[in-house]
Amino acid sequence: MISRVAIVVLMALLGWVYKAIQPPPPMICGSPNGPPVTSPRIQLRDGRFLAYKEWGVPKENARYKLILCHAFDATKDFPLPVSQELVEELGIYMVSYDRAGYGESDPNSKRSVKSEALDVEELADNLHLGSKFYVMGASMGGYTAWGCLKYIPHRLAGVALVVPVVNYWWSSFPRELAKEAMKTVVPSERRTLLVAHYAPSLLYAWMTQKWFASAAAASRDPGIFSESDLKVLHRLLSSGSFIENKSRQQGIYESIHRDLRVMFGNWEFDPMNITNPFPQNEGSVHLWQGYHDRLVPVQLQRFLSEKLPWIRYHEVPDGGHMFMFADGFTDRIVKMLLIGEETSAM
User: Fold this and answer.
1) Which of 35, 136, 189, 209 is the most exposed place for a label (fewest CB within 10 A)?
2) What pLDDT, in 10s, does the model give residues 143-186?
3) CA 7 to CA 189: how far, in whole Å?
4) Contact yes or no for 63/76 (Cβ under 8 A)
5) Where is the signal peptide (predicted)?
6) Among candidates 244, 237, 219, which has minimal Cα distance to 76?
């Protein structure tokens, strides 16, 4: 009798665990129960739809064409804070897009670093951006930029990686260096990275449980922001501008959870083994990092830049993770990428 009760309890427990780790199906934009489609979209070869938004000068008048890869828990609707004066002076056309599962772009259950890069290439082709274009990846959007450098280098005119998130398990990182760097990360964020890497099938359960704090970035824990970040945030909030964040409207799993799984999972390649895509200096790759960044340890970016001497490394001494939103800084990043010059600091 006791053994039968034990079996029933065990089966019930297993059923509860199985249910806890299974994410609900996404609410696809345009489906009967999903959010409405309000943005232009292209259809990819695999049938998925990718939503985009165009900025800057008209495409047909542009001298430079720049594809923007947004950060974690963001969408295409957050504008790049570049001045209109610089946009018009250089003739910059920009297109931002919702990465798979975010905003109004269909989820991709097979999302990978490679699929992200191929999405960029298809977007460029569908919008007729030409044989070469520029790419900028910010924060978590950095892995898309790394994917472009690996899988479509022949399509690139230049790349900017701005505070790109790193994977602590890239094979070229010395283990002790990676461990020490991870210790500097907020504990709740560190635990989430470990789950995403070692037990990705449990990530949904971990991110939705109520007993322990999970991802600090997803919960917007103030501890992830440096003093300079908080000043930037205060200025942005006091500006009075408001943009509705639709990043999670199709479900948290296919947006932010899938992002974590791809970023901190086992990559198909190590970025530190990528070869220079511009051996004749016909283009350039830039990596921008804030010294006080509490999400991306500066020591790992320094090591990476030393391994890839063809990357132009820019370290901002008083910058945190959000330094590009400080007055004038995005103009410096964009101008350096497009013409190899910086505007004066503001």
Assistant:
1) 209
2) 999 999 999 999 999 999 999 999 999 999 999 999 999 999 88
3) 37
4) no
5) 1-20
6) 244
Q: What is the DSSP string of 53-90?
A: EEEES-GGG-SEEEEEE--TT--TTS-----HHHHHHH
Tell me the pTM. Answer: 0.91
Q: Please report the sign of the dihedral spanned by the C-alpha atoms of residue 274, residue 324, residue 247, residue 188.
A: positive
- Over residues 20-45, the pLDDT tens digits come to 567 888 899 999 989 999 999 999 99
Where does the pLDDT of residue 327 fall: very low under 50, low under 70, confident under 90, or very high at 90 and above? confident
Quick one: DSSP state of residue 276? P
- Residues sharing a CB contact under 8 Å with residue 312, sequence separation 6 or more, in sequence order: 284, 285, 286, 287, 336
Q: How far is CA 216 from CA 78, 90, 193, 241, 265, in A?
A: 21, 38, 10, 25, 18
| Paired strand residues for 92 | 64
Quick check: 127 and 95 in contact, CB under 8 A? yes
Radius of gyration of the CA atoms of the chain, in A: 21
Other beta carbons within 10 Å of 131: 9
Task: Of 268, 260, 246, 258, give the one whose Cα is nearest residue 111.
Answer: 258
**The pairing of beta strand 49-56 with beta strand 92-97:** antiparallel
| Overall size of the chain counted in residues | 346
